[in-house]
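Possible regression after last week's pipeline update?

I re-ran a chain I had predicted before the update to compare outputs. Posting the input and the new output here so someone can diff against the archived version. Not blocking, just want to make sure nothing changed silently.
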Amino acid sequence: MKTDRELKELWFKFFAEHGFKKIPGYSIIPENDPTVLFTTAGMHPLVPYLLGEPHPYGNKIFDVQRCIRTNDIDEVGDASHLTLFEMLGNWTLGECNKKDMIKLSFEFLTSKEYLGLPKERLAVSVFAGDETAPRDEEAYNAWKECGIDQIFYLPKENNWWALGGGVGPCGPDTEMFYDTGKPKCSENCSPACDCGKYLEIWNDVFMQYFVKEPGAKAEKLARPNIDTGMGLERTVTVLNGEESVYDSGCLRKVIDFIGEKAKIGYKDNLQATRAYRIITDHLRSSVFILGDERGVVPSNVGQGYILRRFIRRAINCARNIGLDCKYFLDIADIYVDEYGKDYEDIATHRDFVKQELEKEIEKFSKAIEEGHKEFEKVIAGIEKHKEFAAKTGEKVENKLSGKAVFRLYDTFGFPFELTKELAEERGYSVDKAEFDEKFKEHQEKSRVASAGTFKGGLADGSKQSARLHTATHLLLAGLQKMFGKQVVQKGSNITPERLRFDFNLDHKMTKEELDEVEKFVNDSIERKLPVTCKIMSLEEAKKEGAHGTFTSKYGQEVKVYTIGDVSKEICGGPHAENTEELHHFKIIKEESSSSGIRRIKAILD
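New output (post-update):
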């Protein structure tokens, strides 16, 4: 039996022995609050370096990164899907030797000193080629040399990586799967199927190309990279010969704990199994989000909305299996005890995690009450309509519209299953098809908001986004000059068109204050200040007075960007080379972001 910790240690040992340097993992909340709500992959925080920024640790690095993906949240409850997972990753920056990386991958997977998987149980996929780029014969041949027989050519949707929007660095990948031994679902069965025969455990991305605009042909990238990622939980499942990711480690410990407290057993029926797994997964994600150094709490927008959805979905599942939600706090303790060993912020915020969980449980109880009242209003409305229709001969069905059912779900957190149950008790049906349509629209909006990868808060790597990034540094310097060093960045979202900057302040800024800050930034632009970057130790950066809001995530070596005598910040980049490139800064709007947090939107014209 392998534990999560043992696999991590093997990963660290292997890549250290092959000349890679270990870097610290990043927060699960992306730096600068970018469009992507959470850190979705190990490479997510490293995109500036994949785009050419020098990394303080050199060109060969590895780590373990906590990640959250919500685009397939409705799949959670099956044997393999999780919203939170730990990703083992390694990178080669500035070169792309496929053969060497594939050999390393094969060695780690099959050597007895490491994972010891029989090569006969491995299957791999490679890019089949299309009008964008040619078939990846190099990867295919490298796997053949390793002795792998199950090699599948798959199309772009399966074996191509690109940034959100499809513009920027991109390239083919090769994915590694464990053959579970299940029979093929058809003659064309492959890792692209969802039949469960092949379980993905590792992915090597070869960033060889660059796309200038959507639909354009990929051009060769001058400075290619390799990015790999291995899902920790899935790999441990394979190594232990388990049927699901919930059958070992801390996840199994939580499953067993729920089994001691719930009225319905884990394997009593499919609905119960799914409920156990959803509770286990969603509470783990909630603990990681609440325990993160950047502190998100349940709300109706953004990351807070996803967190609220996790908790409330877990509450509904607890209701279905007869589990008292007071035990959620004990489950939180199990997770903090386990993951606090690797993530100090989670251990530090134990009390905060439990307090916020408890508050959300109480709020949802009240929401359920409000939902019941709204449900009765819906029924009363239908009954009134029926009375009127009786006089005109119109026929009215005893059915709740999907729109009304979705409103109960979206506004009051009222689960569909609960609405359906209450409706049936009153002799009503519900329009499931219309509800599904509304829910699908909602899912698509959430997917767009939650998927994709962005560069440390920047929606792309364009020069304009880099200029606006530099402008945020000047803006913060201006705000600190006016209100004091206690003002810090609380979030930033940058596109080529505008910047959005969040900061702590206890009042709405006056027009005079906004004019003064705007003037400060423009004066700095007119002074044509150089923007320089220096790699130094964290201690040196602190001694030099470099500003860094979230220093606990930094490694021993950091990048410090200095803008003349105005700003000195620990930052990953990218930036303009001189403030004169910014031309002119203009504040468009100042508003509240949340309690005690203000937001400035600005442009460069």
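Follow-up from reviewer: compared with the archived run. The first strand starts at residue 21 and ends at 22. Marking as no regression found.
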